[in-house]
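Hi Y.,

Following your request, here is the sequence exactly as I used it, all 433 residues.
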Amino acid sequence: MLSKDSYIFNHIDWYLNIFNNISDFIFLIKVNDDDDFRYSFINKAAKQYTGLTEDAIGRTVHDMLPKILADSIIHQYKYAIAQKHCITYEDHGFFESFDSDSDENYKYFESKITPLFNNEGICTHIIAIVREITERKRKEKALKDSEKKYRLIADNMTDLVSIIDLNGKVIYASPSHNAILGHAPENYVGESFFNFIHPSEIEEVKNQIQDMLKTKESATLEFRHMHSDHSWLWLEVKMSLVLNEDENPKHFLLVAREIMERKLFEEKLRYLAYHDTLTNLPNRRLFKTKLTQCIDEASNLNENIAVMYIDIDRFKQVNDTLGHDIGDKLLCQFSQKIKACLRKSDVLARLGGDEFCILLRVNQKKDAISIAKRIINDIQPKWKINSCEFNATLSIGMAFYEDGLDEETLLKRADIALYHAKKSGRNTFQIYK
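Below is the corresponding structure, written out as tokens. Let me know if you'd prefer a different format.
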């Protein structure tokens, strides 16, 4: 069995390949107990632009940046931690020195700050994804300054530019819609903007538009837009309310870009946060989340909830005598054999080491007992991996939900039952009484 650090090292090439081939600047920041923020990783694009090197790894943000800049960045980090979710903000002058106050010398950036929390709810790391948006900001300004200039620039932008009236009808769509979304611009004009948005996100976009009409402030939205082939593409849309000479709302200006690569990357991160790297099963965090949801719903459903705690008998002996490679392959094959005994609705998770848990919803307790017997009977004691032959059985502890129990108590009861199963000779199951 590999340690947690070994798993990370085995996947480092995969991580580096993703991070270093993304044009955005990516910083992984470690958050320490004393509230200092230290660089754990800086991708290739960020190093090239900022001049930071590997020497920055392990150093604090204040060590590497001017105090004013460091204070500003750390303020955003702390805000994201306090909010407990991702935040996005824009600033200018990032890693730049200027000889004058001319706007031409400024660089504009958009930063996406995502705090990562451990099982205790403590923020351990921050992922900062920074993108230079100078070109976009200047073009947005030019668009607002002049209708003529704005149409000329919009027609030559690779970003998607459109104008919609206050009711959502499209007035203008840039030629880039054809290249990115497969729709000719003329097919948009006169149509409702909402006809192209994924149905599950229309209400949210409408609410955001209503807020903008009240506040007259810009907003950044993310939603799926229909491609001409009827697939859905994720877009990041900067929406601005354009006012007339009387400072009343005139129409909306939208500048959008396709963000499928980033969404896939974020999905990978979410998957890694809730799944075991070795077996690809749900991990302890995801299992506890599903168990808590199941318990919350138990009072409204005429179902029994069963939790099985499973581990491999004498797994340490296999690891010590045959090696970690055999141990890891045993864990993977073992998890697949258990999964084959379960229904689609059952949840199998690896909690760590050779410990597994199963969450079952059953009409009667005997249904869960039948599944436990099936697992014991179907998983034969004799194994052959890489020409190594050995015996390995399993023991199961089972507990059923009762009114008032929380997830920790239910898991503890299953663990106690597992202890008795091992004490009674292994290769069997026991129910908590």
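The chain has 16 helices and 17 strands.

Thanks again,
Q.
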